Amino acid sequence: MTTSTAAQSSASAPLLDLQALVVAVRRRRRVWGALALLGLLAGAAVAVLLPPRPAAVAKVLVAHKDDQPNDTGTLIRTDVELLSTTRIAEQALRSLDSGENPEDFMRDYRGTGLTNNLFRIDVTGDSDAEAVARAKALADAFVADHVRRMRESAKAEADSLLDQRDRMRKELAEVNKAIGDRAPDDDPGASASIESLYARRAELDSRIAEFDQRAAEARTGTPEVVAGTRIVDAPHAVEHSLPKAVGIDAAIGLALGLVLGLSLAAVGAVVADRPVLRRDIAANLGASVLAELRRGPRRPAGRWQRRRTRAARERLTTTLARTARRSAEPLSLLELGCARGTAVIALDLAGALEADGPVVVVDGLPGTELADSRRGSAGPTVLSGEGAAAEAPQGRRLGVGSVGPGTAWTDLRYLGTRTVLVVRAGHGSAAWLHTVARQLADQRIAVTGVVLIDPDPRDRTDGTLWDVARVASRGHDERPTRHNGGGTSHAVQAVGEGRPRTERPSMPAARVPDSDQEAR
Predict the structure, then answer these.
(1) What would the pLDDT profile of 33-58 be if each residue is shown by its tens digit?
(2) Owning domain of residue 309
(3) Which of 452, 427, 496, 450 is nearest to 294 (CA)?
(4) 425 shares a domain with 377
(5) According to the model, what pLDDT value does residue 292 have?
(6) N or C end of the chain, less CB within 10 A?
């Protein structure tokens, strides 16, 4: 059954069709292209209108007493954090004779660790000279603070070692006094006590010498640290290149605008759910694509492009004329999103059908080229909807109407019992295409096929429906075959120009119920 087949196809369809998403995003290239261009211009404008403040840079080499080859940068990170303290800022401002708040001054500079013993100072100011002076003051303040801290640390360590040495000397004096007060005798116990005192004195002498050596080493290490901590790259102003800044900011703005535009286009395509591919439009309308016509170029076209457009219109007119001659019932062209293009197609078709006899075009699209044709004398006879109802036109009748939102569905049958839908790709949502198919089926209007306007040039899908129940079969020219079970069973191959394509779409059109009761 067609219903079960449609249900199985819907169940097996992917939640997100990447091919349709890519095509929809590509068709919205105006959106993301405009945002990318806007980002490019905004980035360039920021670089020109908001240039960076004058800046200066200096590099400082820092020597640490506890330097290790396997240090992971902890010491230099500590120095960078010490640079961003109010004490360093106050010392720098004091050397500059500035009354600026240290907290405000700290916002104008930053330190960056480059290696385990090298970091950079970046400073901004109102001018290049001020930025250089600030950088020098900060570097000098940091070097002086670091040297002072290292000296204080070495002095504190040396004082601690000397204090321990002095305590050892006091104890040594007491041991020497104890040894002097004792005279050697023949008592074995007294002899052992004297030997322990001599051993203690030797140990104290050794430790006192060790503390003296360690204190001397602590003092000796400070000059190395002092000499190793210095400014290795003198403060200098940073050159600002306007073309380079414009190029970098414009590239960043272009990338951000492009990403934002593509994201908005993708989200909009998913939310709007407007079919663009041939297979999706044919499946939602339940009718095959007979022909397609690309939208004309917006700029003045060349001779080759005009010739190509004219040839495509002639092929389309030939296909529609063949479809109109297939039955004596009146044919209508119902547009969705392309009213003016449909009016032009109707006039071309009426001109081709005039070779078989008089043709009357019933205009249901006010404000298009058909209204101008009613005022003129040349060309086919064009009547408004009221004029066609007042008089019975002689000859073949060709109706032109719309199936957009707000359509009076009950009036479409007066335009023709057969219709060709002229649909602009990406205009109507999937829900509205289903509504059009259902309303035409309820009005017993047979959908002969679809003319696709402005298709995607890279669309390789097939717009021909295979082995499905078409909505067009509910018209007067084709009736569904009823079996004893009360259901319908038929397989109609879509009629197109030439041989149908051999591609079989994965999503057949859903069966549209004949009435509201059947739908329930």
Answers:
(1) 999 999 999 999 999 998 888 999 99
(2) 274-519
(3) 452
(4) yes
(5) 86
(6) C
**Bigger pLDDT: 205 or 497?**
205
Residue 40 domain flag? no
In a domain, 113, yes or no: yes
How far apart, in whole angstroms, are the C-alpha atoms of residue 94 and residue 105? 12
Q: Are 338 and 409 within one domain?
A: yes
Is residue 252 in a domain?
no
Give the residue from 163, 5, 89, 76 showing the smallest Cα distance to 489.
5
* Confidence grade of residue 487 (pLDDT, cut at 50, 70, 90): very low
Please calculate the CA angle 174-179-183 and round it to the nearest 5 degrees.
150
Within this chain, do residues 75 and 214 fall inside the same structural domain, yes or no?
yes
Measure Cα distances from 92 to 71, 82, 491 in Å. 29, 13, 90
Q: What is the CATH number of the domain that holds 426?
A: 3.40.50
Token code pair at residue 471:
């909505």
Grouping H, G, I as helix, E, B as strand and the rest as coil, residue 144 is helix
How many residues in the chain?
520
| Model confidence pLDDT, tens digit, residues 412-458 | 888 888 999 999 988 888 899 999 999 999 999 999 999 999 888 88
| Residue 35 lies inside a defined structural domain of this protein | no
299-304: long-range contacts at Cβ-Cβ below 8 A with a sequence spacing of 24 or more? none
Rounded Cα–Cα distance for residues 237 and 4 (Å): 77
Encode 299-336: b = buried (16+ Cβ within 10 Å), e = exposed: eeeeeeeeeebeeeeeebbebbbebbeeeeebbbbbbb
What CATH number is associated with residue 114? 3.30.1890
